């Protein structure tokens, strides 16, 4: 059973821990995510470790203030997440909220940030509406979004259908299905059906049968975390790939591949904002992370590190933690770290950087632990992310007037 709301709030406080002695008013960063549920592997404690690494690498203080990390488990519920964030801001003086998987929670937190003038740094939450119709001057989207996943995986497999979507019944699933279907149809492909499933499903048999009955040649899973792992495993148990129907995991992580295993996952195409084994820089940071977490970082966890480090650099350069001033500094300064060289933050809050189209290796191609993915191509940021004038962000309209 899910813990009640008051217990979640208590957990948020109990998990809070200073990274430096409180010898002045601390600058507090809240990591809000799923700590033990279906998204814990892709975010969870690993995102906290990534945030701690960013603070430590920065030096533990900014403008003479100690930097503290507080942690909250939103249980993938918007009301729980909103209550934690309101308490953080009103009672603990939290300056920025980061990570935030589960798009329904992310969009709720976006509104709190807008109303209370607090920065929201999204890394593992993915709805492209965050920088579209729900954009805010206080919101920055770092690692990926549903449009970018569609521009990678959806566009590359558009003509391998007809497509059938098995979609998680929440905001992220709806956005991922919408953006991918548009990419498929734009690429000359066809969608023959779709079905929704509840979050945390364990039995996908009826959905897989519907896809087969609709005449699909490609089944796309517009879900994430344990839901996607379970769906792909069950599809293989039922012999669906062996029957000639392709599978597309639209939001897969390195930890998902680890859980599924190469014999089952081999050949899957995925789009990532980061992969640990891309180059010497990514490997060096990822091996440091692995020493603490015993798993290689997901793209979202790497994005947490990068976004927080960029934020702290902006606070230092601006000479203040004032939200508006810091956001302006972040947008004026290119992102330059192992995650992205030359990344930039647009006026809608989208951080534009290269993405990567990758293929899961066969078992006989693996050379060392966590050697799971083969790079197919680099997707330039301007191609990967939605054009600025197409998202419906009111900030862009205001800037154009």
Automatic annotation (TrEMBL):
Residues 1-21 form the signal peptide. Gene3D superfamilies: 3.40.50.2300. The keyword Transport applies. The keyword Disulfide bond does not apply. Residues 26-361 form the Leucine-binding protein domain. GO terms for biological process: amino acid transport. Keywords: Amino-acid transport, Signal, Transport. Belongs to the leucine-binding protein family. This is ABC transporter substrate-binding protein. The lineage of its organism: Bacteria, Pseudomonadati, Pseudomonadota, Alphaproteobacteria, Hyphomicrobiales.
């Amino acid at each position: 059973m899910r813990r009640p709301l008051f217990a979640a709030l208590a957990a948020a406080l109990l998990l809070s821990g200073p990274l430096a002695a409180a010898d002045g008013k601390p600058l507090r960063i809240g990591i809000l995510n799923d700590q033990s549920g279906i998204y814990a592997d892709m975010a969870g404690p690993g995102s906290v470790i990534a945030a701690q690494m960013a603070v430590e690498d920065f030096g533990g203080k900014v403008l003479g203030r100690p930097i503290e990390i507080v942690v909250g488990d939103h249980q993938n519920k918007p009301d729980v997440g909103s209550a934690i964030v309101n308490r953080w801001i009103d009672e603990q003086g939290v300056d920025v909220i980061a990570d935030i998987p589960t798009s329904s929670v992310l969009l709720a937190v976006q509104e709190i940030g807008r109303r209370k003038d607090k920065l929201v740094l999204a890394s593992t939450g993915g709805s492209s509406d965050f920088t579209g119709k729900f954009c805010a001057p206080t919101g920055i989207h770092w690692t990926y979004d549903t449009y970018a996943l569609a521009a990678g995986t959806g566009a590359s497999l558009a003509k391998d259908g007809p497509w059938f979507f098995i979609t998680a019944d929440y905001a992220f699933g709806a956005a991922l299905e919408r953006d991918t279907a548009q990419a498929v149809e734009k690429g000359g492909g066809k969608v023959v059906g779709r079905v929704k499933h509840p979050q945390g499903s364990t039995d996908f048999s009826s959905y897989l049968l519907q896809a087969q009955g609709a005449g699909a040649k490609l089944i796309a899973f517009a879900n994430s975390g344990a839901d996607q792992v379970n769906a792909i495993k069950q599809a293989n148990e039922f012999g669906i790939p062996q029957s000639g129907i392709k599978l597309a995991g639209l939001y897969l992580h390195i930890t998902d591949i680890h859980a599924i295993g190469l014999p089952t996952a081999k050949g899957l195409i995925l789009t990532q904002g980061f992969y640990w084994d891309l180059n010497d820089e990514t490997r060096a940071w990822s091996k440091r992370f692995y020493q603490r977490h015993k798993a290689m970082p997901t793209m979202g966890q790497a994005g947490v590190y990068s976004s927080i480090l960029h934020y702290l650099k902006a606070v230092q350069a601006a000479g203040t933690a004032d939200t508006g001033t810091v956001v302006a500094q972040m947008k004026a300064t290119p992102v330059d770290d192992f995650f992205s060289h030359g990344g930039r933050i647009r006026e809608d809050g989208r951080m534009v950087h290269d993405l990567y189209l990758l293929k899961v290796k066969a078992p006989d191609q693996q050379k060392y632990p966590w050697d799971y993915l083969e790079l197919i191509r680099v997707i330039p940021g301007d191609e990967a992310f939605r054009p600025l004038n197409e998202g419906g962000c009111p900030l862009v309209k205001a800037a154009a007037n």
